[in-house]
Amino acid sequence: MNLIILGAPGSGKGTQALRLAERFKLRHISTGDLLRNAVAAKTELGRQVEAVMQAGELVSDEIVLKLIMEVFDAPGEWDGWILDGYPRSDDQAEALEDVLSANREVVDAVIYLDVADDVVTNRLLARKRGDDTPEAIRKRLEVYKKDTMPVLDFYELRYDVHRVDGSESIEEVTDAIVRLVDS
Ligand code: AP5
């Protein structure tokens, strides 16, 4: 099963992707984690993206696509994958369609976690990651609304998009997603 999980910063994409990956034996592909790993390892790529991430802006499409393709090419015993944090714009969604059709892969479902701005902001302020400052959170939400929300329309024309209330408890959100993708 191949899944894409979309939602605002702090909507619970990473939390739910990990739980679904474990449950369905999926490869969890998080562009945020891949980029943070590069920053922590102080690679050349990490140095290029660090300031952009701290500011809550989007890293360039080329860099992120390269990371995604490396993960898709890596061997592993999985029953599919779940993409978390990608795509984040119509251009990235188009690029992903190309990669998938070249690999003869399909998206089985898109999950959209719906959570109000004040709820995600409070969650992020409580977590205190490097990019969880009030200014970076504001910027991430702004970028999300401008660049990433349109991706929902892109997918609604192509795939099943399951809208889930992401403001429930972590367990309730997982159960709701499992019911939808298992049906
Ligand atoms: P990324 O890591 O993808 O960050 P994000 O989208 O801002 O999302 P978060 O990780 O903050 O939130 P989440 O929705 O995963 O929620 P989480 O489960 O962590 O990207 C970071 C940066 O990398 C971007 O700003 C950009 O610079 C760059 N980047 C990444 N991908 C890119 C791309 N494709 N193109 C260009 N640039 C890219 O939960 C958040 C908190 O809430 C946690 O503390 C969690 O415990 C809590 N929580 C979760 N669910 C619940 C719940 N149901 N109830 C209560 N608390 C909950």
Helix content: 55-70%
Percentage of residues in DSSP E strands: 5-15%
State the total count of DSSP E strands: 5
What is the end-to-end distance?
13 Å
Largest sheet: 5 strands, parallel
From the alpha carbons, calculate the radius of gyration and give it in angstroms.
16 Å
Task: Provide the list of bound ligands, each named once.
Answer: BIS(adenosine)-5'-pentaphosphate
Counting DSSP H or I runs of 4 or more residues, the number of helices is 8
Q: How would you spell out the order of helices and strands?
A: EHEHHHEHEHHEH
Strand order of the largest sheet: 2-3-1-4-5
Structural category is alpha/beta
What layout of secondary structure does this protein have?
Blueprint: E1 2-7, H1 13-24, E2 27-30, H2 31-40, H3 44-54, H4 61-73, E3 81-84, H5 90-102, E4 109-114, H6 117-127, H7 134-156, E5 161-165, H8 170-182
Parallel strand pairs: 1-3, 1-4, 2-3, 4-5
The structure holds BIS(adenosine)-5'-pentaphosphate (AP5).
Could you explain the architecture of this structure?
With 183 residues, this protein is of the alpha/beta class. The chain has eight helices and five strands; from the N terminus they run βαβαααβαβααβα. It has helices spanning 13-24, 31-40, 44-54, 61-73, 90-102, 117-127, 134-156, 170-182; strands spanning 2-7, 27-30, 81-84, 109-114, 161-165. A five-stranded parallel beta sheet has the order 2-3-1-4-5, with helices on both faces. α2 crosses α3. The longest helix has 23 residues, at 134-156. BIS(adenosine)-5'-pentaphosphate binds next to α1, α2, α3, α6 and α8.
